[in-house]
Fold these 2 entries.
Entry 1:
Amino acid sequence: MITLEGVKKIYPPDTTALAGVDLHVEPGEFVFLVGMSGAGKSTLVKLMTAEERPTSGTINIGGWDITRIRRRDIPLLRRQIGVVYQDFKLLEQKTVQENVAFALEVCGEPSKTIASVVPQVLKIVGLEEKSHRYPRQLSGGEQQRVAIARALIHRPKFLIADEPTGDLDSLTAKTIIDVLVRINELGTTLMFVTHNREVVNVLKKRVISMQHGQIISDKAHGKYFI
Amino acid sequence: MFISSARIIKFSFQNFWRNLWLSTVTVSILTLALLSVNFFVGLHALLEQSIQSLEQRVNVTVYFQETAQDAEIQKFVADLGGIREVLSADLISKDDALNRLKERYQSDSNIQESLKELEENPLTASVIVRAKTIEGYTPILSFIDDQRYQPLIENRTFQDRTRLISRIQEIKAQVRTAGMGVTIFLAIIAALIVMNTIRITIYTRRREVGIMKLVGATNWFVRAPLIIEALLYSVVAMGITILLVFPILSALQPIVFRLFDGNALDMLGYFSENFIPIFGYQFAAVVILNVLSSTVAIGRYLKV
Ligand SMILES: Nc1ncnc2c1ncn2[C@@H]1O[C@H](COP(=O)(O)OP(=O)(O)O)[C@@H](O)[C@H]1O
Ligand SMILES: [Mg+2]
């Protein structure tokens, strides 16, 4: 599903965020990416969504070499991945329903399809009652569930969550994690970037640990040990 | 393509309404800029009109010889009327001249008495010539002063007017230069204000633009609604300006008439007659400025 080979990223002028990363993720896997702040986790995510370009190395997503992706192909890449961010990144001027629908509207899906799919997905994340609210009228956990619904609506094969529970209390975080686990069980490859030691240890999934822009350990049923 | 066009238009209107505060501020600033442009359009027209009426007060009067025949005089006047620079050439025959004199001194019995005692009309025929512009008098005078008409003409006025004319020409040049300067200055200020307003409007949307891009929107899909929104601002601002200009003009007209001694331009008439050119150019300018500046401003935030 995902293959990174010798990926380096230097932010101008001289910040080395990634110092040579090799990584392979199989379809359907659930991978934790852990590491201290500044380790280079978000940079890795940004390379996979083509928000940033690698200084060297190659990146392949679902059989597509996106190392030197053309600008106009970037939207196509992003429509095949779902991303959930720590700060939710919801459109403040749109309702819950419109935020989720937006991910389909950019793909040019017919309005009929959108009208039938959006309520289904909102039901999965338990927000069908609040579909006409604006993000500011929701709690943090609810906003993050909207973001997850939006990341899922176009049925991506690969979902990245970059510290999705970072700004949430532990109980709310648990509901978000449950949703993500369920999504993975339905067949979506999941990369879960987190600081949350407990979650990592309880779920017993593959754990990749990063430090100073490098992968320092990669365990199949790992623990959070940094 | 059809689906996304419909969506883009829906988004533009949605943005306009849901950011009503921002839209209101933007439209207000655009309207103020347009109103000040129109203020100068009006002022400019007023000054031009005043110069023109000043110019039209100038004339040349040609007095004919006692011996000149009516046919000769009429031929002369007709030829004069054929000159391109001539606005009007009004013939005043001997009888007309006498009648005017009688009319003017209606209440003066002495003069009336002496006029009655006259056996023959002592006045001469004359023609009053007005040029379209001050500069037009040069060819007109050289026509009048032509050798072959001298037997007809007793004399003509004008020698004494050269000072007045050069003074008018001076004022005209000054007003035009100042007007041009102020217009350019004002146009630049208005353009800068419009561009900056749009830039700020887009700046407040930069987060939104970034999010749309991350969700997989193409540049076009992000850009088009914002540009249509800028178009909406232009249309609404122009509409409000037009709705405001006419009441403002009606309110100002009496003041203007008083200032110019009733001899001023009919502002309402001027704006109504030139409605299409005045507002058409402004609308075109504001649309081009808005679309250009929003295109440039959005570009900066699309690089996500
Ligand atoms: N846009 C950027 N420009 C310059 N340096 C950056 C930028 N983004 C991140 N960095 C630097 O790259 C390093 C890795 O950052 P990041 O990938 O965000 O780490 P993490 O997500 O693991 O906390 C840090 O030293 C950070 O300061
Ligand atoms: Mg990070």
Entry 2:
Amino acid sequence: MLINHPLLGPRDASEFTYLGDANLLNRPDWQGENAVEAFHDYLYLRDNPAGLHRELWFHEQGDRSWLVVTRNTLTHEILGVEMARDVARNNKRFEGDAQ
Amino acid sequence: MRYSGFRVIKEALTGHKGWTPHWRDVAPKSNYDVVIIGGGGHGLATAYYLAKEFGGKRIAVLEKGWVGGGNVGRNTTIVRSNYMLDGNEPFYEFSMKLWEGLEQELNYNAMVSQRGILNLYHTDGQRDAFRRRGNAMILNGSDAELLDADGVRSMYPFLNFDNARFPIKGGLLHRRGGTVRHDAEAWGYARGADSHGVDIIQNCEVTGFRIENGKVLGVETTRGYIGAGKVASSVAGSSSRVMGLAGMRLPIESHVLQAFVSEGLKPTIRGVITYGAGHFYCSQSDKGGLVFGGDIDGYNSYAQRGNLPVVEDVVESGVSLIPALGRVRLLRSWGGIMDMSMDGSPFIDKTPIDGLYFNGGWCYGGFKATPAAGWCLAHLLATDRPHETATAYRLDRFRTGRMIDEKGMGAQPNLH
Ligand SMILES: Cc1cc2nc3c(=O)[nH]c(=O)nc-3n(C[C@H](O)[C@H](O)[C@H](O)COP(=O)(O)OP(=O)(O)OC[C@H]3O[C@@H](n4cnc5c(N)ncnc54)[C@H](O)[C@@H]3O)c2cc1C
């Protein structure tokens, strides 16, 4: 698999390590009312779809940036690559404190 | 029909006209007491024990493809009882005891071969960890012997003992472990279940559940609606997809694991060898091919095929352990979809939906578990209580903090 790194261009997937579902960017609020339940679901439960999956890859043998890769788990086709930083900034939770 | 040597001779003399199909080809009925989703080893074993040991009646196994087409026909056939943790080892020992009597039980040649499994160690720390695991195994009624380098050398003189980085210092030998002809095991259970009245329905994919007031009433399938008193899902790599149809999210990711077989060789490797310094394991099939594998590819996948970097990694590990492997030609490779759980251990449990049961999360080690998983799920279906060896396999164990993490990797499925 080739991952088209937004800064470095196409790189072999073996330069990366894989973490999992990009939802891991959305850490629950530890002060929230259902924090225990929310952290259980966040840490342990997965959608695990057959089809499009947004997932976190770390460019360990490269520039050490985190990427969000959109990939089809049925065919391994990669449909999009973004900097995880940008994705996290765009996520609602971070809107207020982006500065 | 009972199989025997006498029968083979008789059929040979009469033109092989007397053989009958292993199981009936039946159309689904409108209603069953128990519907089991998935005609892999686990689903079929469940049906068999439920009918035979627990007096279950009106049981169906629904398989979307054909019997033996899933992981049960794709694995590297290793069976062993060499786990360490309390939640696991009594279960795997139970499974090993069932394997030991399986062929007589099923009147079927599953080629159960207790040829021994040798886990190699390469450092003093690893030796100590193996010693501890061996003791845990013995405490649970299994067998383990710690060998030093000479002990290993007398069994497998061709290994790379003096590797500068990872010299072989010895191994943990589990003599009762070995291999089983994987698809014969599926066919044997299918035949046994059928003879106890179980309907095995192939080409029948479950596409939805009918659930009312928190209770499951039946399943929608590509061959129509089928009502059921109880439904059990045993679909390995498809677990999240199927349980998703019932609105459940699971502590599971699906990953692809590859396996490889070489050209046929004369008898070379008499047991199973695993490398302690890389992920590589190898045995030799009765046809002569070396059967080997290593790590999962490491990213979510439902593709049933992997990529080249892992092929390279497995082969490199293999050649560094067995240099002679460099002269052997690779014949085939393939992949299967693993239901990797968050702690590397499985689930056999009720779900929050009344009448719906779940068996899954077997990772890359569910083949050896087949007899016990079938028995324990049947026990749960029949009595609504977990079997004594499967009490730890609960779906809520991450909530209660009772993980069973043999490798100590945490909630990272691709590292288990
Ligand atoms: C390459 C490889 C090597 C392995 N090596 C080993 C090993 O050496 N030792 C070991 O112990 N384990 C090993 N395993 C793991 C082992 O094969 C599995 O854990 C085990 O086979 C899973 O149980 P099963 O046999 O019931 O699964 P399967 O045979 O996969 O059965 C599940 C069935 O469910 C069916 N299904 C799915 N969705 C639906 C639906 N919606 N409706 C109806 N049916 C459905 C599928 O078609 C499939 O036939 C290996 C696996 C692989 C892929």
